[in-house]
Write a structure and sequence with these properties.
CATH superfamily of one domain: Methylthiotransferase, N-terminal domain
Helix content: 25-40%
Number of helices: 12
Strand order of the largest sheet: 2-1-3-4-5
CATH class of one domain: Alpha Beta
Order of helices and strands: EHEEHEHHEHEEHEHEHEEHHEHEHEEEEE
Number of strands: 18
Distance between the termini: 40 Å
Shape: globular
Radius of gyration: 22 Å
Largest sheet: 5 strands, parallel
CATH architecture of one domain: 3-Layer(aba) Sandwich
Length: about 425
């Protein structure tokens, strides 16, 4: 059977479809790059914003128009809207998040037990979801109750995967680091509330324990952490970066630089605490990239609170940031709050916040002009008759483009950074590579 996998949303969704890919292949099926070529389509949906929910519906309809008559939908939007998902053209099954880990086994009507992946080489997903980095799910669900977030409703309570399951996944994805065409050079740990990993175990563990175990028991060339809530981190955590394989990148979602807005969001931090954490991270991890998420137009956000948030974001000098215009999600506490900000004002504030973050991103990139840094090349496209245009990431999350005499896809090589261009840098490679 030919299977097409697609998703909308977060790195956790990407990790899950990569797991499905391994399982389908272990069961003897093949992956294809388009829904037109597939006998079965699986779409992992998202509902974190209204736009993500719309994108999820669009992908399902798109697969139906492509002629797919067996479409399985799962993920957060499908979990919260199963009846709506079930009537979309071509949909044959809706699998809620509570059952998604068994999706492949149940679809293929296989007996219980684990899939045997040990004889399989890693194959990146074909098509648009092809990745050099392996996204590794280590945790699911969340016990926070941020008033804007619908993910807790869709994903349920926090729960951690055992250490050895995580290590086995990383070994499968990265075990042959001397065979770059077959294995990932970088593993990215993902979860809904990554920093809570291990807190549901008895005895309790923490994320430091997991990261140490991975670094000690795998040969992964680079290890990156996805989003971390700032209140989960203590100073001892940053000692992990003594191992240079750990990427110098921390994504710490602030959401707002206003104390009042943070309180209404039920975030477990304050601007002052966040600033102290960032200062500690920068002291202990030289040249670390601190990136963030910001929500503008949250219910009740006054002009003074927005100005406070804007000034704080400017003060933090983030390496990059994602700005989300507040989107009311049914079932969340924030959707019922008084003082909903008019859409046109949300849009205007979003533009102002994006401008501040763009300036700090440019300043961070400028610091590395004239330096040589190793880059993991994620794409390689022909450029003329004897050259390739390659693009990839440094460990501290700088996007770099360069021209190369050969395709360097999924390889790590040094490159001299020469110019800031847009949201990335231009580099020059040693042409003897």
């Amino acid at each position: 059977m030919k299977v097409y996998l697609d998703m909308v949303g977060c790195r956790l969704n990407q990790s899950e479809i990569e797991t499905y890919a391994r399982q389908f292949r272990a069961a003897g099926h093949s992956l294809v790059s388009t829904p037109e070529a597939a006998d079965l389509v699986v779409i992992n949906t998202c509902t974190v914003t209204a736009a993500a929910a719309s994108d999820s519906r669009h992908k399902i309809r798109q697969a139906g128009r492509a002629g797919a008559n067996q479409i399985i939908v799962t993920g957060c939007w499908a979990t919260l809207n199963p009846a709506e998902a079930a009537v979309l053209p071509g949909v044959s099954a809706v699998v809620p998040n509570s059952s998604k880990d068994q999706l492949v086994r149940d679809t293929l009507e296989l007996p219980g037990g684990s899939f045997d992946h040990k004889l399989l080489k890693r194959e990146p997903l074909p098509g648009a979801r092809r990745r050099t980095r392996a996204f590794i799910k280590v945790q699911d669900g969340c016990d926070n109750r941020c008033t804007f977030c619908i993910t807790t409703l869709a994903r349920g309570a926090g729960r951690s995967r055992p250490v050895m399951e995580v290590i086995e996944d990383i070994r499968l994805a990265t075990g042959g680091i001397n065979q770059p065409d077959d294995y990932a050079q970088e593993a990215v740990l993902t979860g809904v509330h990554l920093g809570s990993w291990g807190l549901d175990f008895e005895p309790r563990l923490n994320l430091t324990h997991l990261v140490k175990a991975i670094l000690e028991q795998t040969k992964v060339a680079r290890l990156r952490l996805s989003s971390l809530e700032p209140w989960d981190l203590e100073e001892v955590f940053f000692s992990l970066w003594e191992d240079r394989r750990l990427c110098r990148h921390l994504h710490l979602p602030l959401q707002s630089g206003s104390a009042g807005v943070l309180q209404r969001m039920a975030r477990k931090t304050t601007p002052e605490a966040f600033a102290r954490l960032v200062a500690t991270a920068r002291r202990l991890i030289p040249e670390v990239a601190i990136t963030t998420d910001i929500i503008v137009g949250f219910p009740g956000e006054s002009e003074a609170e927005f100005a406070e948030s804007l000034a704080f974001v400017q003060e933090m000098e983030f390496a990059k940031g994602h700005v989300f215009t507040y989107s009311a999600r049914p079932g969340t506490a924030a959707a019922k709050m008084a003082g909903q900000v008019p859409p046109e004002l949300r849009k205007e504030r979003s533009a102002r916040m994006r401008a501040v973050l763009a300036a700090s991103q440019a300043a961070y990139m400028e610091r590395f002009v004239g330096r040589s840094l190793p880059v993991l090349w994620e794409s390689a496209c022909p450029y003329g008759e004897q050259s390739w245009e390659v693009s990839g990431l440094t460990d501290n999350y700088l996007r770099v483009s360069a021209h190369s005499p050969r395709p360097l896809w999924n390889q790590i090589t040094p490159v001299e950074l020469t110019t800031v261009q847009g949201e990335g840098l231009i580099g020059v490679l040693d042409m003897q590579l």
